[in-house]
Amino acid sequence: MAKSMILIVDDDREFTSDLERELRARSYEVATATNRIQAEEMASGKEPDMVVLGTMLPRGETYKFYEWIRGSTKLSETPIVVVDATPEKHLLKGWRKDEGMRIDADDYLMRPVAVAALAARMEKVMSKPMGRPVGKPLSKPAAKVVEKIRVLVADDHAVVRDGICAVLALQNDIQVIGEAVDGKDAVEKALELLPDIVLMDIVMPRMNGLEATKQICSEYERAKVLILSQYDDQENMAAGKAAGAVGFIPKRVASSDLVAGIRSAWAGKTMVNPLAS
């Protein structure tokens, strides 16, 4: 049986080398590219069964390659896994918010991510019925209406809000309907926009996130508040629960757990990082 071919497109040579080694150990054929022209040549010649789409400089080159591959007759249905830049590098080489709103990826992760965990996620994507079998084209699925989870993002740091919104923009079932710059703004926008989920920072001016959570939960019971903070100690978890929040996601693991946490909270399921009981 022919081996699956995976193309890694990223200009971080250490990341590319580590992922290539992990995939070869799992018996995949691997090709790599560090710039858009090279990526297009590799994709045309090898017709990969999956593309790992990281980041390249200058910013925007990665999206141009995405547009090229989706516009290709032979490669338009190739599964794509996006691996975005770390939060501190996001404004330099990460995916822009407007790009995220137009992309249709099969999975999304933000660095740092362990290559073994990434490889496992990739195998899960390839095992789905929609994955393209080796050597066989995939018929284009019929369009379907996806119910959107409406999210309000409350954080006083614009860079943090932009990073969160970029992650959520890549999800077909999640829509950011508003951003709040402090606790008072979060309360006002929650009552105005009526979100399903509120992502709430703790330390904010005018009104802190805990007080804002308490007000939102008392005045708009439908909203589910997730505390998103760099402070992940038991005291803050307990305070968040007392205020009415349904879950707590530390910012240090937000890239891996944020989307899953939103979906779980919206569905009423157990959270990835539940508040202390």
Describe this structure in words.
This protein starts with a strand and ends in a 10-residue tail after the last helix. By secondary structure, it is of the alpha/beta class. The chain has eleven helices and ten strands. The strands form two sheets. A five-stranded parallel beta sheet has the order 2-1-3-4-5, sandwiched between helices. A five-stranded parallel beta sheet has the order 7-6-8-9-10, sandwiched between helices. Helix 8 (183-193) packs parallel to helix 9 (209-219). The chain has helices at 13-25, 36-46, 61-70, 90-93, 97-102, 115-127, 158-169, 183-193, 209-219, 234-243, 254-267, and strands at residues 5-9, 29-33, 50-53, 80-84, 107-110, 149-154, 174-180, 197-200, 224-229, 247-250. The longest helix is centred in the C-terminal third of the chain and has 14 residues, at 254-267. The model is unreliable at 130-145 (pLDDT under 50). The protein is elongated.
Radius of gyration: 20 Å
Largest sheet descriptor: 5 strands, parallel
Order of helices and strands: EHEHEHEHHEHEHEHEHEHEH
> By helix and strand content, what is the structural category?
alpha/beta
CATH homologous superfamily heading of the largest domain: Response regulator
Major β-sheet strand ordering: 2-1-3-4-5
Q: How many helical elements? A: 11
Instruction: Write down the overall geometry.
Output: elongated
Q: Kindly state the percentage of residues in helix.
A: 40-55%
On the 0 to 100 scale, the average pLDDT is 83
